[in-house]
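Hi L.,

You mentioned the student needs an example of a multi-chain input paired with its predicted structure. This one should do, with 191 residues in total across all chains.
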Amino acid sequence: MALDAATIEKLIKAGLPDARITIAALVDDDNHWSAHVVSSAFKGKSRVQQHQMVYRALGSRMGNELHALALQTSAPEE
Amino acid sequence: MSDTATTAADRIKQEISENPVLLYMKGTPVFPQCGFSARVVQILTTLGVKFKGVDVLADPAIRQGVKDFSNWPTIPQLYVKGEFVGGCDIVSEMFESGELKQVLADKGVPTRG
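Structure written out for the whole complex:
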């Protein structure tokens, strides 16, 4: 079971509605993705907290159906 | 919380308090079983940091326990002086910006160079 890019984007958007998300495949297997997520919700949060917010949006899929998601997060530039 | 979960959390608390730099990983530092774990081992080795690796594949209770403990769904997980620093992406980002070396220095962990 794997997740496609559109599903990953939809899930992250559901948790972080204003997020701008760029997804790219790390390996062409629907299982290894990289995502760059920009959201105002990240403002004032540590990197660990920012990644936890994305993981929360992905729920139990992270580490299960979704084996690998290389994450980069940031708040929008002022 | 079940007894198994309590025990795993207690063991993790003990391990991260006894080892200044502790990496929960898949495989061992000499023979990592996952590219993301290998990457963090490589970074710590490059910085000349002495660390202990715990192979979560050898212990399912710890594998799940450490995810619950840090509210972090993936392995590897790096702890410095009992504090969760991050997974592979954060550690890589911090290494490339020089921040990781600074954090280690601030916490009194010697690095090379």
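You could point out the following to them. DSSP finds two helices and three strands in chain A. Chain A has a mean pLDDT of 90.

Best wishes,
N.
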